[in-house]
Amino acid sequence: MSKIHIPTPLRQYVGKQASVEVNGATVGEAMNALVAQHPELKKHLYTEEGKLRAFVNLYLNDEDIRYLQKEATALNDSDSISIVPSIAGGAESALNTATTEHCWRRFSACCRSLRG
Amino acid sequence: MATITTEIPVTLNKEEILRYSRHLIMPEVGMEGQQKLKAARVLCIGTGGLGSPLALYLAAAGVGTLGLVDFDVVDFTNLQRQIIHSTADVGRKKLDSAADKLKGINPFVNLRLFDTMLNSSNALEMFREFDVIADGTDNFPTRYLVNDACVLTGKPNVYGSIFRFEGQASVFATKDGPCYRCLYPEPPPPGLVPSCAEGGVLGILPGLVGVMQATEVVKLILGIGDPLIGRLLLIDALGMKFRELKLRKNPDCPVCGTHPTVTKLIDYNEFCGIRGEEKAVSNGVPEIPVEELKRRLDAKEDVFVLDVREPHEYQICNLGGYLIPLNDLPKRVSELDSSREIVVHCKMGGRSAKAVAFLQQSGFKKVHNLTGGITAWSERVDPKVPKY
Q1: Chain A residue with minimal CA distance to B206?
Q2: Full-model pTM
């Protein structure tokens, strides 16, 4: 079993727990187990296409999974996963707002056009 | 050990030596360290929840030049956490209120006051005057602006942020360390009211995080200890737990990577999608002012008032509306009659605008957002309704 640390803005979707224990051989499997157990969590962490939202980072213990094997990173017992969203001070967290996919797509297009 | 270099030689007079005696008698600081503090120039962006303890402690510590950036005015609701301001300051410019308290603590501090909103046209020039930047702001566009300006001017960004009971702290934008964009390349999509007071925050939390930022600033100036470079400190105030995650410099980072594509400051509101969202609100969501709702209710027209706030808010004050908290609306939409005129309200108009958009998508045609929410009702229709 691995532990997933749940950040404050998301605890309301997991029965107020600060961490959840799940089974999974990889980070991806553990996260799937988490959203299967707590379906309301899914839209706050993942897009409709099933990708992790860009303002959320996942850590295996203290390492960012982007620098490991991403969602294929293997999990051992006693490993823990941290979900780390961006927060900005007194502003309302994005994770707490019921964001419509329409707004998200327009925003993503704006980001892509700025990067390109 | 990271340090900033300040070339200006400074001396301490007898009064300063007495004032800072508790620093001077520690080998880790000593005369040399205190002189470094006096020579240092630190810019505090924001004199609010984070900025208050940050600026107070830096002044006490003897930082020679403190810059303050804030265009805001002290509001009654600030006093729960912005401890540099007092009740008598409500209505005053935050900059003036802060300057008075800082001078009161330490008249030797040289204050540089910037009565302006930090933006892409003034940030670079402003940052060049200072050695360290401490980010005490409360919205995403400014955080990205501060980060990019720090990288472009080569100044470390001492970062702190909070939400309700949780905080983060780190030091970004040092030469070999990561920047904010290495951690979060893209900002989250904006709420329809970007820095709304609806989230709430435990007043003590910015105190905790702001002092951590002050600690990191002092460590950078003195060149002692292990600063939070490449480290993200996560603070869980309710559990009083502190965890640390490793941050890496991203070689592909558009700002601080090996081939940067961001070489000047951009429009950060557009980057965070905020202008786009404002258009969505005014084009897509029908609204009525509070006076119009009052007129309809007084004329006994058939209006169904839907309140999408939380139960604890309803207990503070309400308009007698039917309560369905916003997050429950998708599940409970069948409780609403789409043939009736529905006016949706929340505290200030943000959440209710989202509710109206959702109801429209669900096929409701006779639905309006109450502009300004119950706060506007209290201000313009019935002052007996408390504001919170």
Answers
A1: A89
A2: 0.77
